[in-house]
Amino acid sequence: MNLKFDFNNPTRILFGSGALNELGSQRMPGKKALLLMSGGKSARVSGAYARTLEQLARAGVEAVEFAKVMENPIKEMVMEGAAFARENGCDFIVALGGGAVLDSAVAIAAMATNPGDLWDYVNGGTGKGQPLAHPGLPIVTITLTAGTGSEVNCWGVISNLETREKIGFGYPELTPVLAIVDPELMKTVPAQYTAYQGFDALFHNTEVMMSSGVNILSETIALSAIENIAKYLPRAVQDGNDLEARERVAYGSTMAGITMQLTSTTAQHSMEHAMSAYHHNLPHGAGLIMISQAFAEFFIERHACDGQFIKMARAMGMPEADKPEDFRTALAQLQEACGVADLKMSDYGIRKDECMALAINARETMGGLFLANPCPMSDEECAGIFARAYR
After folding, report:
1. In 46-113, which ranges are E strands?
2. Largest CA distance in the chain
3. CB neighbours (10 Å) of residue 324?
4. Can you give the residue ranges of the Alcohol dehydrogenase iron-type/glycerol dehydrogenase GldA domain (predicted)?
C-alpha cells in the first residue's frame, strides 16, 4: 500500500438534506453571479431554482442567468457563456445543475477571464496546452445530481464536435470555493438517470481502486463510497423519494470527487469519452456501464490487481469474496438491480467496426488515464475490450 499522498482541496462542502438553506449565510466570492444552468426544467421542478435565487438575494448577490448547458457540453456553448459573463460584469459563477453544468462551470470560469479559445488551454488531442494567463472566476456549485463529483474538483469534460474530441479540462486554481450537496434537490431525477449517474460515481471510485496510483487515503474513501453506492443505488432507482438512499448515493458521489483529487481514474473513462465524442447522444454513465464488465475482465484475466477486486466485491455486499472474479459478479448483480444490464452500444449508433477508431481516439485525447491502468493496455487490446462489450 502506498502511504504517500498529496491532498489540497480548498472547497468548503456543505453536505446534507437542507444544505441549500445555508447558502445565503455563506460568504460569497463576489457580488454578481452568472447563474449557470441547463434548460432549467429540473432546477425548477425540484424547487432548487427559486430557493437558490432566494438564498443569493439573502446574501446580497445579483444574478444573471445563462441556461444553455446541454448533456455532453460543447466548446461553442462554453465560449458563449464566457462572453455572456464578461458582458454582464459577473465576478463569480453559481453552477446549479448536474454534471454537465458543473463541468461547464470550470471551462466558462476560465474563458471568462482569459483570451483566445478554450482549446488553446486544453491538454491532449488537438489542444494547445497553454497555461492560463489569468485566474478564472470563482465558482460556487449546487449539484442537482449524484454522479460526477465535479462539485468539489477542478475538472470538466468538454466536447469539440469539429474534431470529434471529448477531453477533460482543468487547472487547480479553478477548484470551486463552495459546494452545496443537498440530496433533497435530487429526488426528482428520473430513475434511468439516477442509475446512469450513480454508476458514474461508482466507477470513479472503482477506477481509483484499480489505479496504479491508489494510496491509503484514496482507497479508504473509495471503499466507503463504493459500499454506500452499491447498497443504496437500487433503492434510489426504485423510489426517487427515498431520501436516505439519495443521501447515501450523494455521499458516494461527492467522495469520488475527493478520491479523484488523490488518485487518477483509469482508461475506462478515456474509452467512454471516445464513445460519446463520436456519438454525442450517448449519456456518459450509460457508456461506462456498457464497457464496465469487459474492462474489468481485462485486468482480472491478467491478475493485475486481484486484491483490489476482492476488496471491492466485499464492499459491494459479498463479504466472503476471495477471488477477483467476484467483483464482476457483484457488478453484474448491481446492474441487474438497477435495470441497466441490457444497455447496448448499437442502440446509440455505435458500430463494431469502430472499435479501433474509438481506441485510438481514447488514447490520443485522454492518454494520461491509460498510465494509471494497473497493467499496460495496447490499442489492439483496448479495441478488444470495446469488441467484447459490443451488443
Report:
1. 62-66, 92-97
2. 60
3. 23
4. 10-183
